[in-house]
Amino acid sequence: MSLRLACKPSPSIVRKSVRRCHLLAIFAFVSLALTASAIAADKVELTVDASKTGAKIDRNIFGQFAEHLGHGIYDGIWVGPDSPIPNTRGIRNDVVAALKAIKVPNVRWPGGCFADEYHWRNGIGAHRNVTLNPNWGEVVEPNTFGTYEFMDFLDQIGAEAYVSVNVGSGTPHEAADWLEYMTAPTSTTLGKERAANDHAAPYKIAYLGIGNESWDCGGNMTQDYYVNQMKIYSRFVRNYNPAQQDKNQMLKIAVGPGGSEPRFVDWTEAVMKAYQQHTWSWDINGLSMHSYTVVRWQDKFKSLGFSESEYAQFLKETSSMDGLINQYSAIMDKYDPQKKVALVVDEWGSWYAPLPGSNPGFLVQQNSMRDAILAALNLNIFARHADRVRGANIAQMINVLQAMIMTDKEKIALTPTYHVFKMYVPFQDAMFVPVTFDAGTYTHENISLPRVDAIAAKDTNGNLWLEITNIDPNQPVEIEASLDGVTAKSAVGETLTALKVDTVNTFDAPNTVAPKPMSVRVQNGKLIFKAEPKSVTVLSIKQ
Ligand code: AHR
After folding, report:
1. Measured distance CA(416)–CA(398) in Å, rounded
2. Which of 80, 280, 376, 507 has the fewest CB atoms within 10 Å, measured from its CB?
3. What is the DSSP letter of 17?
4. Ligand 1 centroid to 339 CA: how many Å?
5. What is residue 217's DSSP assignment?
6. Where are the beta strands (DSSP E) in 100-250?
7. For this structure, is 213 an active site residue?
8. Is 193 tagged catalytic?
9. What is the 109 CA–ligand 1 centroid distance (Å)?
10. What is the DSSP letter of 351?
């Protein structure tokens, strides 16, 4: 058995020559030693210290981003009340049902780059102005999905509003009027106008984004210019909703970095320094950070039909999210040691080449098992930084970039990333629980990465949850999890895996990648189970 195991292809052996296998056979004792170490590497021991809890994993790290881009809004959410596709006031029922199931905490809207060219008056009332969308394919923007429709959509899925106002081509006056329109009582002219447009009650606006990428598509501003704008918008763009005055106040999120380059360091320093010196008249509660997993912007990687080499490169790239958060947390700590300002990663996810035949401005890509792994790794990074990262919005919710859902007319497919978000629902607002483990190594060509990742948390009912990601596309891992502070009686869970790393769900085969129940053995208080190759597993531990 040992000789056969030594010759069996494994990540470390698979590309080595047959000659090496023969050598192993000849030197049996070497083979035995190698086999023993291979078996040891196949097992990962974890300790979940349930006697300790860390920061709360804010449910807002599971936020979504919906921009007027490609089919993200039109066709993805909005089909109009006269559509044969089942809808409620123009909003797709199938999409609403799917999003309700993942308990979307907030949706960032209307952009993105689109936000800095959005004029809210085009999207209210019975008559909508038809404009263009110069950022994304120069297509016609009918503005049929505007404030009322966005808020109706949020109501239907049970999420909160994260509205990004136009700092680039708008004015503080325009943004202040929009907020007044959305939140003021009907005793004001703008409040009356809202009531005339079918919504008498003030809307709740939980988050206000003060611009988007103001260092780039949001106006190519210098940091000093932006800081001045930020103060003005923070001061004058008011929320009048009576229910948001003392409690549930609207949180204001300033533009932060978009990478690790020196210009973003300077930008972050400038914003945070201004925050440190802020007076009673203005404030911010969050700093945005954008970080896509791209590898290279020119000749981007494909989202379908890729090699293990591209898989490994992509996961290596995505792991840099941790370093980026460390880098900017350190700057924030300098000016805000009490961590009052949240780091909000309000654009993240994979960005691949557009699917052949699609409009390149629509950012259409497929979503494979690789994206599910990437999502889990990033969510785990956010959870480990839960004291500072209190918001994140994956880009983007439907039909764009790393989407939850793909639609094509009446058809719908939930992506592998969707399933990860669903499996992670128990982690929303749960308390972080430390897990220690030696992850082992997954090596492909010149890339070596931790083979296993894991987080644990205690939910609001005191239930313990454990998540395990095995990034190795070829080898399963035997997991042996010890628990400190609790005695496990049983554990049940689900695992998401696929035949290949580039396996996807299509409209014709929408359930190819879907979570399956998995079995866990409890022995001497330890949880013992196999984490399949390229898998994401979430377990509920019964005590
Ligand atoms: O998500 C697509 C675009 O990426 C957003 O509009 C912009 O903010 C970012 O550059």
Report:
1. 13
2. 280
3. -
4. 27
5. T
6. 106-109, 131-133, 139-141, 160-165, 207-210
7. yes
8. no
9. 12
10. -
Q: What is the rounded distance in angstroms from the CA atom of residue 43 to the CA atom of residue 477?
A: 5
33 pLDDT tier (thresholds 50, 70, 90) = very low
445-471, pLDDT tens digit by residue? 999 999 999 999 999 999 999 999 999
CA of 241 to the centre of ligand 1 (A): 30
- HSE on the CB side for 120, CA within 13 Å? 26
pLDDT at position 483 over 60:
yes
Tell how far CA 78 is from the center of its chain.
22
Catalytic residue among 141, 213, 317, 532: 213
Token look-up 């320093």 returns: 269
User: Structure tokens of 394?
Assistant: 């994956």
CB of 402 closer than 6 A to ligand 1?
no
Ligand 1 pocket check for 395: Cβ under 6 Å: yes
Per residue in 205-254, pLDDT tens? Answer: 999 999 999 999 999 999 999 999 999 999 999 999 999 999 999 999 99
Closest ligand 1 atom to the C-alpha of 111? 6
Distance set, CA 409 to CA 55, 114, 153 (Å): 43, 24, 19
Nearest atom of ligand 1 to the alpha carbon of 135? 6
* Residue 49, φ and ψ in degrees, nearest 5: -95, 85
The predicted structure's pLDDT at residue 42: 85
Crossing angle of the two packed helices 262-276 and 223-236, in degrees rounded to 10? 40
Return the closest-CA partner of residue 49 out of 521, 433, 542.
433
Distance CA 474, CA 476 (A): 7
Phi, psi (degrees; rounded to nearest 5) at 406: -115, 140
Per-residue tokens: 15:
């590309």
Per-residue pLDDT tens for 267-287? 999 999 999 999 999 999 999
